[in-house]
Amino acid sequence: MPITSVEKDLDALTMTVVADFAASRQRLWEAYTDPRQIEKFWGPVEWPSTFTRHDVFVGGRSEYHMTGPDGERSGGFWEFLAVDDGKSFEVRDGFAGADGTENPDMPSMRMTFSFEDTDDGSRLVTTTHFGSLDQLEQLIEMGMEDGMRSAMSQIDDVLADLRSFAAGQGTELQILTDTKIRVSRIIRGSVEQVWRAHHEPELMQQWLLGPDGWTMPVCEVPEQVGDTYRYEWAPAEGTEGEPFGFVNVLLESEPPHREVTTELMIGIEGEPSTNELTLTPRSDGNTLLCVVVTYPNREVRDIVLETGMVDGMETSYARLEGILA
Fold it and tell me: Does domain 172-324 have CATH number 3.30.530.20?
């Protein structure tokens, strides 16, 4: 088990957990900043977690829920207060209700995560700062320490699995809930390069094409939150298919890390889906790209997935890497 010490300081109102790992500090950092990885260990063995948002930048937010053995759920969130890439981050950690918003009946805490090099690999020092002695005692009584021990017992297997999260493994689809999916991929290129490739029409029309043989004659991008924009695709000469497109509204933008948009196919009535794009830098200079899509219902989700959307995205992302190279 990686935990080597747990110290509670009743005067300082802190609990400090030290854990040592054979993996490098960079590898450990990636395990905590990649939602596909952290959800494999953030939570006791019997309560696996699902991260529906994980924005590792100052002002960013993570949202997750843990599912118990009988299907019951417990939600939580992080608000990122400080991030020193590869070395540390600080969050406000709290409980969330079924809708993802903060549960005001439960306490929140400040947590710092410090990643250090050691002779044998790396060390993680997690310090939880409580608001009062009553709060500390309440959360310890609820099983916080035991939960952390159980959660960390799973990290070694995640750290040993290098291939699953390496560049070049292709686009990955995960079904998060009945209405949410996450599409993720490591892109060979910096966060700034990948962000620019998603916002400059001249670049987008070179790579955002899906299967070979298609063109993007209309690429109207927004200038500010609230703007409506439009993408349209058409088959090139000799390619079968009908033109199609989407209209979108930019809801949130935090360059170069995150943006949220709606998406509705042109000519189709109904409620739009919501796309949340997050770009996270990696220690190797590449970028973890995640898109969380929320559909109006499960039926729409399944219809879209059956179109081969993920294969088309992989073709586009591979084309993007060629352009960035």
Answer: yes
